[in-house]
Amino acid sequence: MVIYQKLFIKNYKPAHETQVAFLSRLSRLLSIGYALMPALERTKWEGKFVPLANTIIPALAAGATIDEAFEKANFHPHIVNHLYLSRTTGNLEVSIKKAADSFRDRIFYFKKLKQITRYPLLLLFIFCILLFLMKQIVLPSFTNLFQSGTASSTLILFMLLVDYIVYLLFAIGAISMLIIFLWPIYSRKITTRSLLRISQTIPFYRGYCRVQTSMTFAAHFSSLLKTGISYLEVVNQMSKLKKQRVISYYASFIKDELSKGYSISSILSTLPLFDKKLSLLFNQDTSTEHLVQDLDMFTEILMEDMKQKALKIITFIQPVFFLVLAGFIIFIYISIMWPMYELIKTI
Questions:
Q1: Is pLDDT at 101 greater than 80 in this prediction?
Q2: What is the pLDDT of residues 298-344, one digit of tens each?
Q3: CB-based contacts of 163: which residues, under 8 Å, 6+ apart?
Q4: Which of 106, 139, 282, 328, CA to CA, is 20 to 30 A from 115?
Q5: What DSSP designation does 244 have?
């Protein structure tokens, strides 16, 4: 029984909603004055948090850092990165709250996208089955009814169109499934430089990566800068964010260029996945306090902009799906009725 419990805890992967709830509860306990270990013990009062607390508490007791303990409990890398930065900032409560808030937004938009696309995708799947049955059964049965060469050629044209559409839909579906299932595995194996090249090649994905990278860099830089350390030490700490490969790669590059004497604003302006406005913030002759305020405001603006764009895309997807399906339904109707019309003409 003990062995089973250990294996269960080791292999337990908490749901995203459970991770957010655990962080919110822990942040609340810390905010009212509990120390970290007593706060973690009190999270056990809720049954769903027991496996998480039973993994994190022994890890911390054995000398692991907070981010290592949460990584051992299979928390999402997004959360682990925020907790890693708390090593330098020293403000664990703020790091936990930021991790919970940002991850909650992430969950919300993914759930919204699933809700909106679920029904259209189901209809599209049913349509593909109907189209395949029509190609295999309905249209071939009409060929036996026609003796006229012109009628047969018309039917053959429709059958060719149906063939092309069926093959196109299956090709799109197969490619989509390969991307969904293989990309997470492939992206972990390729070098960061190759990952950057791919990110810069795909138009819409490039825009998303630019906003996401700029927002994450500004948020992390601001949090670390508040501790009073230098720019060089800030990017040195960010270069250790191994769960965020692009940020880590860029931070290492910036650190090397700063060591050569280049200004940070000139370095940022050469990096393609950074917003041009980010380099302008460092180009101003302002104090560290004002720079922190500017970075926080810049992060907030990018976050609001990303939320608005995400909502627009999500609300745009469903009407497009329905329009495409309506076009396919009309095509099926014409494909069936046109041969019947040709048959009536031959009577």
A1: yes
A2: 988 988 888 888 778 777 877 887 787 777 777 777 766 766 676 66
A3: 135
A4: 328
A5: S
Q: How far apart are CA 81 and CA 83, in angstroms?
A: 5
Q: What is the pLDDT of residues 139-178, one digit of tens each?
A: 666 666 555 544 556 666 766 777 777 778 778 878 877 8
235-238 long-range contacts, Cβ below 8 Å, gap at least 24?
237/85, 237/88
Give me 85's structure tokens.
Answer: 């930065």
Q: What is the DSSP annotation of 112-168? A: HHHHHHHHHHHHHHHHHHHHHHIIIIIHHHHHTT---HHHHHHHHHHHHHHHHHHHH
pLDDT digits (tens, 9 = 90+) for 235-273: 998 888 877 888 999 999 999 999 988 888 889 989 988
Place of tokens 């009309």: 330
Residue length of the chain: 347
Closest CA to 238 of 92, 87, 97: 87
**Mind giving me the DSSP string for 282-329?**
HHS---HHHHHHHHHHHHHHHHHHHHHHHHHHHHHHHHHHHHHHHHHH
Q: What is the pTM of this model?
A: 0.71
Separation of alpha carbons 224 and 290, rounded Å: 14
Element (H or E) spanning 243, and its range?
Answer: none
In contact, 234 and 225? CB cutoff 8 Å = yes
CA nearest to 256, candidates 232, 229, 228: 232
Matching residue, tokens 């913030």:
281
Inter-residue contact 142 to 335 (CB < 8 Å): no
